[in-house]
Amino acid sequence: MAVHGPFIEEANINRVVLSRFMPDEDLFESLKKIAKDHGIERGVILSAIGSVKNVVFVNVRSHAGLPVKKEDMMEAEQPGPFELLSLEGNFFPSQEGGEPVIHLHAILGTSSGSVSGGHLLKATVFATVEIILGSLTGSSVYKVKSDVTRRMELLKK
Amino acid sequence: MAVHGPFIEEANINRVVLSRFMPDEDLFESLKKIAKDHGIERGVILSAIGSVKNVVFVNVRSHAGLPVKKEDMMEAEQPGPFELLSLEGNFFPSQEGGEPVIHLHAILGTSSGSVSGGHLLKATVFATVEIILGSLTGSSVYKVKSDVTRRMELLKK
Amino acid sequence: MAVHGPFIEEANINRVVLSRFMPDEDLFESLKKIAKDHGIERGVILSAIGSVKNVVFVNVRSHAGLPVKKEDMMEAEQPGPFELLSLEGNFFPSQEGGEPVIHLHAILGTSSGSVSGGHLLKATVFATVEIILGSLTGSSVYKVKSDVTRRMELLKK
């Protein structure tokens, strides 16, 4: 674990990748494949629209403090399908190497017109996901386990 | 209808258009006007914030399968006004020509602080909508009716 | 107050800033600091993900008209913490000078899996906020008080 601090760095998004994910694709695996095949080390979702099913997400319990304990994360598993109303997030390399660390938050439309969502752990494409991913260049940050939050957080080396 | 498959293509967003939509403008018509006047063939919403009224949106019923039947789409019509909390989406040319196919998902804040939303069919500007639209170049995808979803989906020719 | 009209202008986002905000930072103050330190006159949030606490937001009451009266804005103050599921918005200079006018809409995940949110007045970072801000160049719009909405709206001079 490392001591983390705030940082601000200038970067560029000179290249984007447009993709359509097909029914039954795993959202996380499809993102990793794009990252690998197109040499995108640091990526950010600029736009995503579509529908998903078999979704697992977590939210933090009210009045939780830092570091967030496991029992403070409320997990929801929902079959759906749902309209994917918003997908925010990014991926960065881990300091230890290996696969990129993907951080995604999803917002889902339900058949009642109400909306649910959270920090995404798993999602499968229902009909389609149209995604535009930006390749972030000029950045030198990594995901490193934080001594404060006990999660993988961005750290500028 | 056509057999669709996944695709990934490299593209660029070198040009953006900033616009303010005024009260009572139709969101879809205003987007089409920008596309036409500024020669944007393929566009993606990079940011949108404002408020809307007279909104119609749909969500898919739980446990629906593919292709989604008409009775599996739950329509909601709401006068609002609502804060426009998120607007995701894009437009691409149809293979058959004519107007671009606009695909939008909206998330709306209600006066109780709860949130609703879905796949957007209609919305009118309430006080303002500030929108930043990216022009996607280097792309060669079109919207074509899919044999699987029976909707207009992205297809790389 | 000024008479406002629609506008469309071509602009560019050639430079982005990536930042991590730390626990207990004020979201608005941190954005202002980036704007000042990095000479970003007009900025747009391209991506934001993280968690927040001590949030104040407003939504417009159903059936409200223009100009929106103070009693038509419903204020919610919530301690959280919440997953920050979406943060949309921008900042532009005021015509009168001084600090930039920041316009933010936030969507928050609650421990029940439901979602709340609105026009953001205040938020403090809980564990982290990872933000990618685009610097908008080629734009000449300002925030000016509108005669119609009685709020600060975008105006092209």
3D structure, described in words:
Three copies of one chain form a homotrimer. Chain A is mainly beta and 157 residues long. Chain A contains one helix and eight strands. Chain A has one helix spanning 27-37, and strands spanning 7-21, 43-60, 73-78, 82-92, 101-109, 115-137, 141-145, 152-156. In chain A, strands 1, 2, 3, 4, 5 and 6 form a six-stranded antiparallel β-sheet that branches. A two-stranded antiparallel sheet of chain A has the order 7-8. In chain A, a hairpin with a 5-residue loop joins strand 5 (101-109) and strand 6 (115-137). The two termini of chain A are 13 Å apart. The mean pLDDT of chain A is 94.
Keywords, separated by commas or semicolons:
157 residues; globular; 7% helix; homotrimer; six-stranded antiparallel β-sheet; 8 strands; mainly beta; two-stranded antiparallel sheet
- The total of beta strands of chain A comes to 8
- pLDDT below 50 for ≥5 consecutive residues: which ranges of chain A? none
Largest interface: A-B, 43 and 52 residues
Specify the oligomeric state: homotrimer
Shape of chain A: globular
Structural class of chain A: mainly beta
Figure out the total of helices of chain A. 1
- SSE string of chain A, helix = H, strand = E? EHEEEEEEE
The N- and C-terminal alpha carbons of chain A lie at a distance of 13 Å
Question: How would you characterize the largest beta sheet of chain A?
Answer: 6 strands, antiparallel
**Over all CA atoms, what is the radius of gyration of chain A?**
16 Å
User: Could you report the average pLDDT of chain A, rounded to the nearest whole number?
Assistant: 94
What percentage of amino acids of chain A are in beta strands?
over 45%
Helix content of chain A: under 10%
